[in-house]
TrEMBL record:
Species for this entry: marine metagenome
Domain Sodium/calcium exchanger membrane region: residue ranges: 4-85
Coiled coil spans: none
Membrane-crossing residue ranges in chain numbering: none
Localization, UniProt: Membrane
Protein name: Sodium/calcium exchanger membrane region domain-containing protein
Keywords assigned by UniProt, alphabetized: Membrane, Transmembrane, Transmembrane helix
UniProt entry tagged with the keyword Transmembrane: yes
GO BP term, pick one: transmembrane transport
Length: 85
């Protein structure tokens, strides 16, 4: 149990650091391209948050047969429902 809590803490710290760097990097790209932060948020940050779902769905559909396809479809539908709310 202690090991799992340690992994959770390390994962949370890593996620926090990576997210901060991602946002700073996106802001730098926006400044270099001279686009508004709204456009940057909609495109770069939007893609960054959707990329893991795309990878999971693609790998599941390609490697797991019918169950993987069902997992990929569930992931797609679930993420779209979550985005609508």
């Amino acid at each position: 149990v202690v090991f799992n809590i340690l992994l959770l803490a390390l994962g949370s710290a890593g996620l926090t650091i990576a997210a901060d760097r991602f946002v700073v990097g996106a802001a730098q790209v926006a400044a270099r391209l001279r686009v508004s932060t709204v456009v940057t948020g909609a495109l770069i940050i939007g893609f960054g948050t959707s990329a893991p779902e795309l990878v999971v769905s693609t790998l599941a559909a390609l490697t797991e047969g019918a169950e993987g396809t069902a997992l990929a479809m569930g992931n797609i539908v679930g993420s779209n429902v979550a985005n609508l709310t």
